[in-house]
Amino acid sequence: MSVIGVVSMKGGVGKTSVTANLAAALATKLGPDRVAVVDLDPQNALHWHFGIEDTQTAGVCMQSLDGSDWNGVAVSTDFDVVCLPYGMASEPDRESFESLLSTNPHWVREHIKNTGLDDDGVVLIDTPPGATVYLKQVFACADLILIVLLADAGSYATIPAMETTLADMSALHPQLPSVYVLNQIDRSESINRDVADLLRQHLGARLVPIGIHCDEAVGEALAFQQPVLAYDPHGQASHDIAQLATWMIAALNQ
Q1: Looking at residue 118, what is its pLDDT?
Q2: What pTM, to 2 d.p., does this model score?
Q3: Closest Cα to residue 181, out of 216, 134, 145?
C-alpha cells in the first residue's frame, strides 16, 4: 500500500479537486477498490466529487471519537474509488478529534492499515491548508507528499512556509519525498504564464512535469458530483490528470 498526502499552505488552490480526480485516474489504471481517499479536511467536501450524499457521510471524525475503526465509513463509489469522508461534525467534536490526533501521532497510519485495501493499493489523503495537526498525521504515514500550487503570486509566496514545514518534518521523516504540482494553468494569461515559468525555475525537478490546465469541465463535473474523467474524459484536464496518475505510479514504484 502506498499513501499520498495532498497538501497546501494556501486555500483555494483546488487541492480537494486534485485529490478526487487523481484518485479516479489512478483507479482507471489500477482497477476497482485498489484506490481509496481519506478526507482529513473538516470542510468535508471530498465526498461530493463521488456522488455521496451528506446523509451517507458518517465519517472518520465521529468514528474515531466513538472508538470504532474506519471500515464502517468506507464507501465504495461508482468510480472504483473507496471514499472515507471526514463526516458531519460539530465544532466541539472537531476539536476533540484534533486533540485525539495530537496525542497519537500515528492514529491515521494505524487506521489506514485496517481499511482492507490491497497491499498494492493507493490511499490519497486530503488535508486542510496550513501547518495543522492533520498535516503532521499525513507526514507520519505518507510515502509521498503532493503539494498543490496555483501559478499565482499568492501560491508562490507560500513556498517558504511550506519549505520550512518540510524541513521541520524531515527531522522525523528524513526519507519522505515531496513534490509540487501546478493546478489550473492558463497559458493565455500573461501573469499565470510568467509565474508558472518562475516556479519551474525555482523548484526545478521538484515540480511535477505534468501540470493541470484550467478547464471549466472540472467545476462542471463537481456540480454533477463526479470526477472530471467521468464527466469529460477527452477534455484537457482529464488528459492532464491521467498523465499525472501515470507519473505518480512511476514515482511510487521507484
Answers
A1: 57
A2: 0.94
A3: 145
